[in-house]
Design the sequence.
Protein backbone atom coordinates (compact mmCIF):
# COMPACT_ATOMS: atom_id res chain seq x y z
CA UNK A 1 0.00 0.00 0.00
CA UNK A 2 1.09 3.40 -1.05
CA UNK A 3 0.08 6.73 0.33
CA UNK A 4 -3.66 7.20 0.78
CA UNK A 5 -4.71 10.84 0.79
CA UNK A 6 -7.13 11.67 3.56
CA UNK A 7 -9.02 14.84 4.10
CA UNK A 8 -11.08 16.49 6.76
CA UNK A 9 -13.44 13.51 6.95
CA UNK A 10 -10.80 11.91 9.20
CA UNK A 11 -11.87 14.38 11.90
CA UNK A 12 -15.48 13.17 11.87
CA UNK A 13 -16.84 9.88 13.15
CA UNK A 14 -18.54 7.85 10.41
CA UNK A 15 -18.47 10.92 8.16
CA UNK A 16 -20.96 12.78 10.39
CA UNK A 17 -20.32 16.16 11.96
CA UNK A 18 -22.01 14.90 15.11
CA UNK A 19 -22.97 11.26 15.66
CA UNK A 20 -26.62 10.50 16.30
CA UNK A 21 -25.76 8.37 19.34
CA UNK A 22 -22.81 7.77 21.61
CA UNK A 23 -20.27 5.27 20.42
CA UNK A 24 -19.41 2.48 22.79
CA UNK A 25 -15.72 2.45 23.49
CA UNK A 26 -13.31 0.25 25.36
CA UNK A 27 -10.99 1.11 28.18
CA UNK A 28 -7.65 2.85 28.15
CA UNK A 29 -4.52 0.74 27.69
CA UNK A 30 -2.70 -0.41 30.81
CA UNK A 31 1.04 0.22 31.12
CA UNK A 32 1.61 -3.52 31.60
CA UNK A 33 -0.02 -4.18 28.20
CA UNK A 34 1.97 -1.42 26.53
CA UNK A 35 5.27 -2.83 27.86
CA UNK A 36 4.64 -5.92 25.71
CA UNK A 37 4.39 -3.83 22.52
CA UNK A 38 7.19 -3.11 20.08
CA UNK A 39 8.46 0.41 19.40
CA UNK A 40 6.59 0.33 16.06
CA UNK A 41 3.33 -0.78 17.68
CA UNK A 42 3.60 1.97 20.31
CA UNK A 43 4.21 4.55 17.60
CA UNK A 44 1.19 3.35 15.62
CA UNK A 45 -0.98 3.30 18.75
CA UNK A 46 0.16 6.85 19.63
CA UNK A 47 -1.12 8.12 16.28
CA UNK A 48 -4.38 6.17 16.50
CA UNK A 49 -5.07 7.71 19.92
CA UNK A 50 -3.96 11.16 18.73
CA UNK A 51 -6.39 10.87 15.81
CA UNK A 52 -9.17 9.92 18.26
CA UNK A 53 -8.38 12.98 20.41
CA UNK A 54 -8.51 15.20 17.32
CA UNK A 55 -11.83 13.65 16.30
CA UNK A 56 -13.27 14.30 19.76
CA UNK A 57 -11.97 17.88 19.73
CA UNK A 58 -13.63 18.42 16.33
CA UNK A 59 -16.93 17.11 17.70
CA UNK A 60 -16.66 19.34 20.77
CA UNK A 61 -15.98 22.39 18.60
CA UNK A 62 -18.83 21.50 16.25
CA UNK A 63 -21.21 21.27 19.24
CA UNK A 64 -20.13 24.73 20.34
CA UNK A 65 -20.50 26.11 16.82
CA UNK A 66 -24.01 24.68 16.42
CA UNK A 67 -25.07 25.61 19.95
CA UNK A 68 -25.69 22.00 20.92
CA UNK A 69 -25.88 21.49 24.68
CA UNK A 70 -22.86 19.82 26.24
CA UNK A 71 -25.29 17.61 28.17
CA UNK A 72 -26.53 16.17 24.86
CA UNK A 73 -23.10 15.25 23.65
CA UNK A 74 -20.45 14.60 26.26
CA UNK A 75 -17.27 12.73 25.38
CA UNK A 76 -15.32 13.43 28.54
CA UNK A 77 -14.88 9.71 29.26
CA UNK A 78 -13.38 9.05 25.83
CA UNK A 79 -11.09 12.07 26.11
CA UNK A 80 -9.86 10.87 29.52
CA UNK A 81 -9.17 7.38 28.12
CA UNK A 82 -7.13 8.91 25.29
CA UNK A 83 -5.13 11.09 27.68
CA UNK A 84 -4.47 8.16 30.02
CA UNK A 85 -3.30 5.92 27.20
CA UNK A 86 -1.01 8.62 25.82
CA UNK A 87 0.48 9.28 29.26
CA UNK A 88 1.08 5.55 29.74
CA UNK A 89 2.78 5.27 26.33
CA UNK A 90 5.10 8.11 27.38
CA UNK A 91 5.80 6.32 30.68
CA UNK A 92 6.69 3.04 28.93
CA UNK A 93 8.94 4.82 26.43
CA UNK A 94 10.68 6.68 29.26
CA UNK A 95 11.23 3.39 31.11
CA UNK A 96 12.84 1.98 27.97
CA UNK A 97 15.03 5.08 27.56
CA UNK A 98 16.23 4.85 31.17
CA UNK A 99 16.99 1.13 30.80
CA UNK A 100 18.93 1.82 27.59
CA UNK A 101 20.93 4.62 29.26
CA UNK A 102 21.71 2.33 32.20
CA UNK A 103 22.87 -0.43 29.84
CA UNK A 104 25.02 2.07 27.90
CA UNK A 105 26.63 3.31 31.11
CA UNK A 106 27.33 -0.26 32.27
CA UNK A 107 28.92 -1.12 28.91
CA UNK A 108 31.35 1.83 28.99
CA UNK A 109 34.73 1.17 30.56
CA UNK A 110 35.10 2.91 33.91
CA UNK A 111 37.27 6.03 33.80
CA UNK A 112 40.56 5.71 35.63
CA UNK A 113 40.65 1.93 35.18
CA UNK A 114 43.48 0.40 33.25
CA UNK A 115 42.46 -2.12 30.64
CA UNK A 116 44.62 -5.18 30.04
Sequence:
Amino acid sequence: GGFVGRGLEEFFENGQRLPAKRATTGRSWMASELRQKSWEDLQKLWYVVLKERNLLASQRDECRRLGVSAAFFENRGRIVKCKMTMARIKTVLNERRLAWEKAQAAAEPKKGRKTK
Observations:
- The chain has a mean pLDDT of 82.
- The first helix runs from residue 31 to 34.
- The chain has three helices and no strands.
